[in-house]
Amino acid sequence: MSSGLKSKLPNYLTLGRIFLVPLLVAALVQLDVRWRIGTLVITNDLLALLIFLVASGTDMLDGYLARRWGKITTIGTLLDPIADKLLVSASLIALVQVRVVPAYIAVLIVGREFVVTGLRSIAAAEGYTIQASELGKTKMAAQVVAISCILGSVRHPALLPVAQWGLWVVVLIALISAIEYFRQFWRKVDDGVKQRRRRELLTAERRERLLRKKRAKAAQQAI
Question: What is the 3-state secondary structure (H, E, C) of 160-181?
């Protein structure tokens, strides 16, 4: 495989995940999908599950390829978390629309994503980077399992209890990881403010010292 393709393939996979989001939402909210391929009948819930699994698979594959080939790029670093949040948020909102997931659970999970994204954006504007925590990575894996079980429970109701427990596990991890992100944010920003104030005080003291020297020199010259 050429070096140019290696450098672009992880980003293409990330973009592909973003483009799969509208298809996933359409499959979830469309209630009359029924395709027959031989003995297999593909309904909207099965189609949505397949799209979601493919999209989730690209999430693992693009990061693996980027690390293995040493092709981690700035655009990939920026797009990957956006693609993840779009995939999960769109899935949960669509599942609320079809009355499969309670709205308050979707609000908690999606709201957490907005809060964490906002904190990381503010930190980035201040020149700090808040790295993804291990809890955040665990949350993504738990979300994939929970949403997959919800989609699969349409045909296999035995998966529904697992899906419900999985959602509560996701909510718990989401809240704990949000607190961890806030602690990192507060520590970095608070330290940054203290360092900035210290530099400002030192600069002001230096200017005051220079001003006193100039006044003393002017007084000597006047004598």
Answer: HHHHHHHHHHHHHHHHHHHHHH
Q: pLDDT digit string (tens) for 74-127?
A: 666 677 778 888 889 999 998 888 888 889 999 999 988 888 878 777 777 767
Tell me, rounded to whole angstroms, the distance of Cα 5 from its chain centroid. 26
Residue 97, SS3 per DSSP: helix
Indicate the domain borders of the chain: 1-100, 123-223
Spatial separation of the C-alpha atoms in residues 166 and 173, rounded to whole Å: 11
Measured CA to CA, the distance from residue 64 to residue 71 in angstroms comes to: 10
pLDDT tens, position by position, 20-65: 999 888 888 876 666 666 666 677 788 888 999 998 888 888 776 7
Burial of residue 93 (CB within 10 Å: 0-12, 13-18, 19+) is middle
Beta-bridge mates of residue 37: 40
Beta bridge partners of 40: 37
Q: Is 159 exposed, middle or buried (0-12, 13-18, 19+ CB in 10 A)?
A: middle
User: Nearest Cα to 90, choosing from 174, 166, 19, 157?
Assistant: 19
Rg over CA atoms, the chain: 26
Q: Is it the case that residue 163 has pLDDT exceeding 80? A: yes
